[in-house]
Amino acid sequence: MRTMKSFASVALLLACGGAAAAGLADRVTQQDGWVAWQVPMVEGAGVPCCFDSHWHRGVCDLESSNWSFGTSDEDPQPATAGDLGVYVHVAQGRIDRVRALAASCTLRNTDKVRRLDAVAAADSVALLAGVAASAGKDFDSALSAAALHADAGATRALEQLAAAGHPQHLREQALFWLAQARGVEGARIVERVASGDGDAELRANAVFALSQAHGIDGYASIHAIAQHDASEHVREQALFWMAQTGDARAKDDIVAAIDRDASPKVREQGVFALSQLKHGDADAALIALVRGRYPREVKRQALFWLGESGSEAALKFLDDVLTRADRKPASG
Questions:
Q1: Alpha-carbon span 283 to 289, nearest angstrom
Q2: How far is CA 236 from CA 257, 258, 263, 294, 311, in A?
Q3: What DSSP element (H or E) covers 10?
Q4: Distance between alpha carbon 133 and the CA centroid of its chain, in Å?
Q5: pLDDT at 117
């Protein structure tokens, strides 16, 4: 199995970058230890760096096992995308760790880093895609590093890794980064997978990725999936992520799905999705279900989530319901 994975990663490396990419792999692995290079970073990536538990930007430590990486909305955004620093660790001639962060980040333990000049972004993408395809323990960071490259080849590499034939988790993570970092083109790839892949579990995960996409109306795509997908599970996930997007259309569309869908499981997830709405919409939607002409099970679930809400509006409604129930004459 290890040999087959190795051949797959080499094949992807050659397909993405050709001989030059293979040459970069030779340069990187000729000596153990950390090696680094810089490439242009994709627009819209923010400032990928290290943050503490309060999302304050801190110092990155290459040797730390607690690698907290992300971007913060409060972090000052540069006027241009800037450069990405790619750091890979080589042990016994093999890449076993990958780090990628904005070149402006402060790093610790870099005194022994071997630095490479004149690395083409396309070759860097191909190398990282090959690491990801090898299904090693650090492939998630290799995927994110590839996704942050400004080079258009990053989109093509991620699309290949999201295709059938790769391990499920690798496909899911490739879709996530296509949505997160690859703009309209990446979002359209995720949309196609979410709407048409033969694996229902992957479609469900692609719906989540689609909810994170930039440059397209991801909500509209998810709504269409909630209406038409053959899988109950996919429709359930679509309703949940519709609520999570914060889109103003979500409340009415989810209520319509509860009205329309014949699956009790999908209706149950729809009620839960309504409970996740913000700004008082959740209570209003759940109260409307209790008052409306819906199946008893839908009403029971709506009452449950109203109880979990604990808001003033929810408690007042529940008090009114209980008061009316107390006033009913006992049946004789």
A1: 10
A2: 10, 11, 10, 18, 26
A3: helix 2-29
A4: 19
A5: 94
Report the distance separating Cα 50 and Cα 227, nearest Å.
40
Give, in degrees to the nearest 5, the angle at Cα 69 between 116 and 175.
Answer: 90
CA pair distance 228, 239, nearest whole angstrom: 12
Give me the amino acid identity at 169.
H
CA nearest 205: which of 219, 190, 220? 190
- The 10s digit of each residue's pLDDT in 254-274 is 999 999 999 999 999 999 999
Distance CA 166, CA 171 (A): 6
Among 294, 290, 291, 300, residue whose Cα is nearest residue 261:
294
φ, ψ for residue 91, nearest 5 deg = -135, 125
Q: Determine which of 4-13, 163-172, 174-183, 251-260 has the lowest per-residue pLDDT on average.
A: 4-13
Query: How large is the greatest C-alpha to C-alpha distance in the chain, in angstroms?
Result: 90
Distance CA 269, CA 103 (A): 44
Q: Are strands 83-91 and 94-102 parallel, antiparallel or unpaired?
A: antiparallel
Beta strands 83-91 and 33-40 are: antiparallel
| pLDDT given for residue 7 in this prediction | 38
Contact (CB, 8 A) for 257 and 269: no
Q: Residue 257: which of 279, 244, 245, 240 has the closest Cα?
A: 240
Average pLDDT over residues 157-185: 94
Domain extents in the chain: 1-151
Does the global pTM surpass 0.70? yes
Termini Cα distance of the chain: 74
Mean pLDDT of 67-95: 72
Residue 213, both tokens: 């996409």
Which residues are within 8 A (CB) of 49 and not within 5 positions of it... i.e. 6 or more apart? 57, 58, 60, 69, 70, 71, 75, 101, 102, 104, 105
**Residues 284 and 317 sit within 8 Å (Cβ to Cβ):** no
- Distance between CA 189 and CA 210 in Å, rounded? 10
Question: Strand, helix or coil at 115?
Answer: strand
CB 50 within 8 A of CB 60: yes
Is 109 in a helix, a strand, or coil?
coil
